[in-house]
Amino acid sequence: MKRIGFIGLGIMGKPMAINLIKSGYDLVVYNRSQASVQELSKQGVEVAFSPMDVAKKVDVLITMLPNGPEVKEVLLGDNGAIYGLSKGKMVIDMSSISPVTTKKIASILAKKGIRMMDAPVSGGETRAIDGTLSIMVGAYKEDFSNYYDLLSAMGSNVTLVGEIGSGNVAKLVNQSIVAVNIAVVSEAFLLGAKCEVNPESIYEAIHSGLAGSNALQSKFPLMMEGNFEPGFTLELHRKDLKNILETAQSLDVKMPLTKMVTEFIEKLISDGEADKDHSAILKYYEKISSFNLV
Amino acid sequence: MKRIGFIGLGIMGKPMAINLIKSGYDLVVYNRSQASVQELSKQGVEVAFSPMDVAKKVDVLITMLPNGPEVKEVLLGDNGAIYGLSKGKMVIDMSSISPVTTKKIASILAKKGIRMMDAPVSGGETRAIDGTLSIMVGAYKEDFSNYYDLLSAMGSNVTLVGEIGSGNVAKLVNQSIVAVNIAVVSEAFLLGAKCEVNPESIYEAIHSGLAGSNALQSKFPLMMEGNFEPGFTLELHRKDLKNILETAQSLDVKMPLTKMVTEFIEKLISDGEADKDHSAILKYYEKISSFNLV
Prior knowledge:
The structure is a homodimer.
Chain A: E1 3-7, H1 13-22, E2 26-30, H2 34-41, E3 46-47, H3 51-57, E4 60-63, H4 68-76, E5 90-93, H5 99-111, E6 115-118, E7 121-122, H6 124-130, E8 133-138, H7 141-152, E9 155-162, H8 166-194, H9 199-206, H10 214-225, H11 234-250, H12 256-270, H13 281-288
Parallel strand pairs in A: 1-2, 1-4, 2-3, 4-5, 5-6, 8-9
Antiparallel strand pairs in A: 7-8
């Protein structure tokens, strides 16, 4: 079996790497922070000293990093993976980054004959642990087929979207819809509560109709509990939203709703709520209307 | 079996009345436009000459009208139903109107000992025909129990939300979410298309995740076909949105997303799109970004 490199053992990356180990893959890992590295080291995983060092030892390199600049640094920077990868090797970037950045990196790697696919995920920490992430893949069909089993060790819904960069395009579309769907749930239910109608009763009446959504179903109960433990943080959602708005601006696409919700999230973050779950968008609404849902 | 009055035989009202007939109810109808009246008359339904005339002949009066002013006129205006209803009779207003208006009307009727419940619906013409509407009820519990079977002849999901007016509160919450969810699907998928990724592939990758919604599932295929036949018209959605914003303003609740999408719909209507399905919000985005989804 091929050796797999894994760089980026954060909240998402660590459980994803563990699922690869459980599926019998032979891992070499690198991570800036050492706590996760030591945990995986105890499970018999080889620890490398730099991205280049990982790259030299593996056939496939997976990266799971916060954003585009980190992916560029790890792949193309000093001691970057590009200096350890030889022709025909594969980079699978599972980070959520701008598809423009993905394409730039892929074209640089391609000059050395290194293949790349983007495979950002959705589903959050719980589904990363369960190995049931949705994985949106931008790749050549042949590469997708070849690495389908590998990706399936981390996710239950692995979809080829299109060419390289398409995975991140799907992720941007996803994150725009999620942010706005959560925001309007907050906005609308706050009106209902201010009308002195029990939000749970409204939920019962509408959740199976056209207003129904996975955001409503999964976030409404947390809003009612005032439980804003992540989940997926406002900080990370802001990062995705900024990638969306930059991409949209570069293509002259207008995204007024996404822009508006990004501003709400920025205000929340400047109020110290960065580490809350994105369902805490409710708190922005509670503030501007001086009224609480519960 | 009680005699049922039915006023308002429009796109929704007519199939709802027909479902009552099919369930064996004895109907007396009134409608300003005569085409629907004649159709129901052929089915053996009694036709009355005014709302008052209907009211005199029935135990329960159902109204299904475009908006608050029409409901007020029919119930409280010249030859209005109030002059034909006696103590203990029941008015079920199934129109989607402002809950503030609902409460005002209910309190006027209550002075004559006439009971009222609000029971606005969602699901559109198709589900009105199928008798599978969602019906959101604001009523005393006892009244809800007494008229549950009657309502169930028109809908498959009949929910008691709370006191009188609560049905329309739930409907407002519903319509705000629906409008914004449709709008952000348009906004986000247009970005995806501009990135030269096939929208159908993006849909496949994201529709079962947190971005999934009933609006996405039911409207995305129509958007891809460019099929904007209603369904539910932009004109009617604007009416609901104006009721939402008026209610919100009167209660000092801020609804920035709902307000923004209302403005999009108003621009579409001033461009002559009033009779299109609300999924035609896509056309607003296509215009401002000078780019078409398909």
